[in-house]
Amino acid sequence: MKVQGIRVLDLSLFLPGPYLTTVLADHGAEVIKLEPPSGEPVRSIGQRAGGHSVWFRNIGRGKKSIVLDLKKPEELAAFRDIARTCDVMVEAFRPGVADRLGIGATAMTALNPRLVYCSISAFGQDGPESRRPAHDLAVEALAGTLSVNLGQDGKPTNPGIPVADVTASLLALSGILMALLRRETTGRGDVIDMAMFDATLSWLPNATGAVFGEDRAPVVKHERQWGGGAFYGIYPTRDGKWVVLGGSEHKFVETLLHALDRPDLIPGASGPPGPGHEPAQTFLREIFGTRTRDEWEAWFAGRDVCFAPVLDLKEAFAGPQVAARQMLVRDEEGNLHIGLPIKFRDEPGQLNPRLPALGEHTAEVVAEARRRLSQ
């Protein structure tokens, strides 16, 4: 597997760091998860299956669990010994906490110059907001993305995906892999300061036109990606469900409006998003309301139009594409797991469904680190 032989020390909790290290574990890395004596909080959050929380099953699989009290000198010494044998360290404390514990980037990279040290925090290690407590929703609020995530009432609503968490996680993963690649040339690791805030802002290249080009906040209902385009929007159906048109290229507009006997709406629906699309939107709302979601799916079959039914999560995971791509995996005990999204032709990843007991590997990992250091 691609990162077999890479040893990762993971001090993070909840989602951004643990998701990142799960991807590494799925592709062969040895991931050592340092948990507080009370355990990773998500061990006890949310619905359970097979004796564990589903959340923990998705971010704890295939890892080793150790418990050390870093405020105790002898246990801090054991931690430092482990860090000396690792290639990557991931932490997600508030800025300053790791330094106070004696495990900050400067101390750890002095101890192990080959270490790739990654800090994930809400706002980064510096700046006026760096010490501000925040999880995903607050970061999205300050990054402006919540202001464009509007419900049917036109008011901001909780996003369906934790955007700040996952963008930071994926960019941190990219940074770690780049640093490991560069280490092959230099022999030295690096320090990564990954802010969820920065990551969220960076994923807006298609949404900053009004701000950068016209020095104004976007009018959400007039922007193509947020419903200002008739062919990039969400429409209710007769049975109280929903469908989407997800592509506004001219060929799709022509194909559908000709099929619905409304070619007169093509010019407006092919123009810039905003008020010019309102006649087509009004018509599409009316016509989609005449059939059920599934009837529309059957009607669109074979037509060259970007169309999709809005599925709930249960329906989505039960779909044939999920099965074909192995994105839902059932282990030998019958528990379900989200599959591996990175698919290599050679050296494919391998999902290890085993979950560690809290602190199960402490003695083993400490002994192994000291054995390596004595060689």
UniProtKB/TrEMBL annotation:
Keywords associated with the record: Transferase
Q: Does the keyword Nucleus apply?
A: no
What GO molecular function annotations does the UniProt record carry, in alphabetical order? Answer: transferase activity
Q: Which residues form a coiled coil?
A: none
Per the record, the domain of life is Bacteria
Protein name, as recorded: CaiB/BaiF CoA transferase family protein
Q: Which organism is it from?
A: Falsiroseomonas tokyonensis
Q: What is the lineage of its organism?
A: Bacteria, Pseudomonadati, Pseudomonadota, Alphaproteobacteria, Acetobacterales
